[in-house]
């Protein structure tokens, strides 16, 4: 309801971008992107990218050809399929050849499907033209802080221009690239959603400021997700006993962020190989072996 009419038309059949659509339309994530250019303290590479995903087990990494075969198999069995996204298991734009080859091929064989991508944003400014050329209409960027001092506590290092950078330097580069990427996409008419992982005591109080800044840069939806910090997941945050927000904290935080931007509250933190309606995950039905048998 907060959205202008022009944007509403674009989100009508995307289950993540429209709360109403998620009852009627399905999404598929194809897990073609194994590598990552960031280190997040909540990451455990035995699982999918925690920026977008609930820790499960790591998805079966697919080649672009396998991803296309899977897309066709899912479209045949789930007629509500409207969106195909790349959300890991690492970072979509840290694996640009695999990601763009997958999108190009899906565009050819299933032009009716919308394309969607989620990224930590570090490489985003380099790929805005490619995303626009392929008509990728929806991009999610994970932004956990707009203050590098806070960002450095969450993302201790990055791999940028073939070098590992650490601490404040890394956090500043990441933030500058994220905001430049969001702004460039928004200027070109791409819908940008921002994901933030709420981490009590680290960036929790800071997320309304993130809402404000990303909205100024052109994002239109903020998805505030809870840190999942079970020590058995073996993340750095899990090892130091960092807790996630309580339900009450999360509700309060989403309300605070909603002063500045539309806030998504129906995110399911899906796996990087999720398939089906939000809230159901039929990804396991479309294993590589089964899809190979179908095609
Ligand atoms: Fe892990 Fe995702 Fe962070 Fe990369 S962006 S380090 S895959 S959580
Ligand atoms: Fe949508 Fe959230 Fe699932 Fe991504 S993780 S597909 S935003 S519901």
Task: Bin the strand percentage.
Answer: 15-25%
Overall 3D shape: globular
* Number of extended strands: 11
Largest sheet geometry: 8 strands, mixed
What's the helix-strand series? HEEHEHEHEHEEHEHEHHEEH
Q: Give average pLDDT, whole number.
A: 89
Distance between the termini: 42 Å
Which spans have pLDDT < 50 for at least 5 consecutive residues? Answer: none
The CATH architecture? Alpha-Beta Barrel
Estimated structural class: alpha/beta
Briefly, what CATH class?
Alpha Beta
Q: Which features does this protein show?
A:
295 residues; alpha/beta; TIM Barrel; 8-stranded mixed sheet; 3-stranded antiparallel sheet; 10 helices; 18% strand; globular; binds iron/sulfur cluster; iron; metal ion binding
Provide structural commentary.
This is FeMo cofactor biosynthesis protein NifB. The protein has 295 residues and is an alpha/beta fold. The protein has a single domain, classed as Aldolase class I (TIM Barrel), CATH 3.20.20.70. Helices cover 36% and strands 18% of the residues. An eight-stranded mixed sheet has the order 10-9-8-5-4-3-1-11. Strand 4 (114-119), helix 4 (124-133) and strand 5 form a beta-alpha-beta unit. The longest helix has 21 residues, at 167-187. It starts with a helix and ends with a helix. One iron/sulfur cluster binds next to strand 2.
Provide a short characterization of the protein structure:
Belongs to the radical SAM superfamily. NifB family. The chain is of the alpha/beta class and 295 residues long. 36% of the residues lie in helices and 18% in strands.
């Amino acid at each position: 309801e907060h959205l202008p009419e022009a944007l509403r038309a674009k989100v009508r059949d995307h289950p993540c971008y429209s709360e109403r659509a998620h009852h009627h339309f399905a999404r598929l994530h194809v897990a073609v992107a194994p590598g990552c250019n960031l280190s997040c303290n909540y990451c455990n590479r035995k699982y999918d990218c925690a920026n977008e995903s609930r820790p499960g087990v790591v998805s079966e990494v697919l080649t672009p050809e396998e991803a296309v075969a899977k897309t066709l198999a899912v479209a045949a069995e789930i007629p509500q399929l409207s969106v195909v996204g790349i959300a890991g298991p690492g970072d979509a734009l840290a694996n640009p050849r695999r990601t763009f080859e997958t999108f190009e091929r899906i565009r050819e064989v299933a032009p009716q499907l919308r394309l969607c991508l989620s990224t930590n944003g570090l490489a985003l400014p380099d790929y805005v033209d490619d995303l626009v050329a392929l008509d990728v209409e929806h991009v999610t960027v994970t932004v956990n802080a707009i203050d590098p001092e806070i960002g450095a506590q969450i993302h201790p290092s990055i791999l940028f221009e073939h070098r590992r950078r650490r601490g404040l330097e890394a956090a500043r580069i990441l933030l500058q690239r994220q905001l430049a990427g969001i702004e460039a996409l928004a200027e070109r008419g791409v819908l940008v959603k921002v994901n933030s992982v709420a981490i009590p005591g680290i960036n929790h109080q800071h997320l309304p400021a993130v809402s404000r800044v990303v909205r100024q840069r052109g994002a239109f939806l903020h998805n505030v997700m809870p840190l999942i910090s079970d020590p058995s997941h073996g993340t750095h945050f899990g090892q130091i006993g960092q807790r996630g927000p309580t339900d009450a904290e999360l509700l309060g935080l989403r309300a605070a962020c909603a002063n500045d931007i539309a806030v998504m509250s129906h995110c399911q933190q899906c796996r990087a190989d999720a398939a089906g309606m939000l809230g159901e995950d039929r990804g396991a039905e479309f294993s590589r072996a089964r899809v190979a048998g179908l095609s």
